[in-house]
Amino acid sequence: MQNISPEVSEVHWLLDMFQTVDVGLVVLTADYKIQVWNGFMENHSGLTPRQVRDRYLFDLFSEIDEDWLRRKCDPVILLKNRAFTIWEQRPFIFKFRNYRPITGVADYMYQNSTIFPITDVRGVVTHLCMIIYDVTDVATSRLELESMNGQLRQLSKTDFLTELNNRGTWEDALQTEFKRLKRSGHQGTLLMCDIDHFKRINDGYGHAAGDVVIRQVAQAVKKNLRETDVAGRYGGEEFAVLLVDTTADQALYFAERLRKTVEGLSMEFNQQLLKATVSVGIAEYTPDMLEHRQWIEAADKALYTSKADGRNRVTVAAK
């Protein structure tokens, strides 16, 4: 039996490791022609080393941003430094599909990479080596956690029943706008809205029916909002809307449209038809207001007038 020299055995071991290691290994010439392509790259690209050898990288993989990658690699060649890319900055270099069942939520493999120079005996950089790491598990876990945290932050600001801003979030927005108006002298109007005879709905049909009415009125409020307006559930059956850069006259149009929308709603609960109306109070910001609560009080007073005058109407506070 022929003996295998230690040198040959070591080369065989290294080649075997090179092919089976669970990272991508790519060696490029200085002009980006592929010289080495290991098993990881073959398995995920579907291209064999023979198919890619001496091919221009950017011809084979059009998804790679050539300008970006060259900016990463040029210092590696010139300064003989390593370069790194991380998935947070760019999800991947090679657009490989993700086949892991555990991380099936991702369509493509998230990748980190290390790029380092390969020099000849004279110390001249002749090739670049790219190591591609599959970090899909880490990336998807991080993204899911961030998404959950974002949802929790949103939930902490949102009224569960109406999906409008809760009172605290809405009032914070009002304080911010109040300070802005104090500085700028611009216009802004506050609208307070209350469902008429809401206690009768709760007493006659139950609190579940009352929740249906509150949700439907909230939808009517959202339907009439502009992107810059800020609406919230102020408490119980009362809603508040901050109309940015809006005069009282302009707000009156909004309020009447809202009042008519609610008046026209037909809400069904347990095969029974529910109807509702709203009363609205409007107060435009005035420079003599010292704090935002005075603004709320002015709109509340106008709302009370609407209630006292027969409900299902809009009242504008006197300046």
From TrEMBL:
GO molecular function, one term: diguanylate cyclase activity
Domain of life from the UniProt record: Bacteria
Stored Gene3D superfamilies: 3.30.70.270, PAS domain (3.30.450.20)
Keyword Transferase: yes
EC numbers for this chain: 2.7.7.65
Class in the EC hierarchy, top level: transferase
Matching InterPro entries: Diguanylate_Cyclase, GGDEF_dom, Nucleotide_cyclase, PAS, PAS-like_dom_sf, Rev_trsase/Diguanyl_cyclase
Protein name: diguanylate cyclase
UniProt organism field: Rheinheimera tilapiae
